[in-house]
Amino acid sequence: MNKMEKALRELSEMDELAAHASPVHGLCPTAKLLTAIAYILTVVSFNKYDLSGLSVMLLYPVLLFQVSGIPVRTCFYKLRIVLPLVMAVGLFNPIFDRAPMLTLGTVVVSGGVVSMLSLMLKGLLCLMVSFLLMATTPIDALCAALRRLHVPGMLVTLLLLTYRYVGVMTEELAVMTDAYHLRAPGQKGIHISAWGSFLGQLLLRSMDRAQELYSSMLLRGYHEHFHYVDFKPFTFSDGLYTVGCTAAFLLLRFVNVAQALGGLIVR
Amino acid sequence: MIEFQHVSFAYERGRSVIEDLSFSIADGEAVGLIGANGAGKSTVMKLLLGLVSGEGTILVDGVPVNRQNLSQIRRKLGFVLQNSDNQMFMPTVYEDMIFAPLNYGLSREATEARVDAVLEQLGLQELKHRHNHKISGGEKRMAAIATILAMEPEAVLMDEPTSALDPYNRRLVINTIRGLKQTKLITSHDLDMILDTCDRVILLSAGRIAADGPADQILRDRELLEAHRMELPFCLAGRRLE
Ligand SMILES: Nc1ncnc2c1ncn2[C@@H]1O[C@H](COP(=O)(O)OP(=O)(O)OP(=O)(O)O)[C@@H](O)[C@H]1O
Ligand SMILES: [Mg+2]
Q1: pTM, whole model, 2 decimals?
Q2: How far apart are the C-alpha atoms of A11 and A95, rounded to whole Å?
Q3: Could you state, in order of their start, the residue ranges of all structural domains in chain A?
Q4: pLDDT tens readout for residues A211-266
Q5: Which one of the ligands is nearest to B81 CA?
Q6: CB-defined contacts A:B, below 8 A
């Protein structure tokens, strides 16, 4: 199996994770989408020095991981490329913001360090929840949910097709690299002299395939709108889930539970 | 039901692929379209489906194939592509099968029933929830045929339906095709299959009709076939493997 096929397999693994069964998988996609949006908005709205308040938000993804049965390891493995980028965002804060914030024993922690940590945590939380959404909801269902929230059909279809065509392109690339290596044994990678034609071919071939795929859709009655398989209707319990979770997020946002609990113990 | 009137077509200017092609296919007829590689068989299909357009007139049930009538016409025609990889674009076989019926406004229950009936007819129940990129080439071909049958088209167009199939599945496809009441237009290099499934054969050569007539007349004509880079079907050749 070459690298491309691995990449392809990873993509399809998301589909497979999403096809599992669990209480989280069973929720209506719209409910999950709304809750994820509420969660991300809440997380982002935290004050940049409010690390303790923010850390309590970790509860939700941890619960989701537990209930959905998606391994945490898988999540970090899939996010291994984006995670460092997102985490790097706050890296310079400690340099610019040196005002002392709090003292832990004899160590003085500056505001910059706290805000760096909270930014990192924010990034991590948002990524985890987005991942969990993707891993528990098939892409089609997700698109259907977006449609139901009145996101323009064009955009949603674009999203869906991009997702599909990435697969098509990786597949073409996999076939081509295999064909190349079969005739260039012992070569590592693709020789630079072949890059031009290789890329050109890849583009043409993926375009051809995309074209055929698209005709195949047209021939089967596709016009502008996807008829999404509406896996699950939005039921009362879905409403309860959405409202309950959102209320909990708001509570965690405006009442510092960590501090309150700590206060109870100290007093 | 299908009528070509003086149709010509070229992909690139000056290199015509189809030249002044005229023929008609009656309701319920099963026609085999044969010819050497590059003779233009797939192109005929594309013209009929309105995927490419050339000069001349193509009629489906008396309705000309043009931009305004496309959706009306395509609804009647089920096309099995030469390359099944390009036909299946949903994650699972099942999702691919419900794509067309839902697009044509069938209810969920009716679609479900149709899908199950087709899968049973082809003996493919086992494939239903398999992932499209994880099934073999032959299985994919069978699934592609299933997605088209789930459309319940009035005419079935198949481009090389038996290539890449093992003998068992090939026979299954042949029997399935024979069982279809719809109008059929089938291209293939598998002349034995054509002989088994079609009453009439159109022999295409460099974009023109070289012969058109009853299948067992044309497919017996060794000289005609060999003149157009083909051979007698095995079952008629009287050859035996030593
Ligand atoms: N997209 C294209 N652009 C330019 N020329 C094309 C294109 N598709 C096909 N052709 C040319 O048109 C001619 C007819 O092609 P077509 O695919 O119809 O042949 P075919 O009879 O189906 O052959 P096969 O038995 O190999 O499937 C060929 O000479 C081919 O080179
Ligand atoms: Mg062809």
Answers
A1: 0.74
A2: 39
A3: 19-138+232-260, 139-228
A4: 888 888 888 887 766 666 656 788 899 999 999 999 999 998 888 777 777 777 76
A5: 2
A6: 64
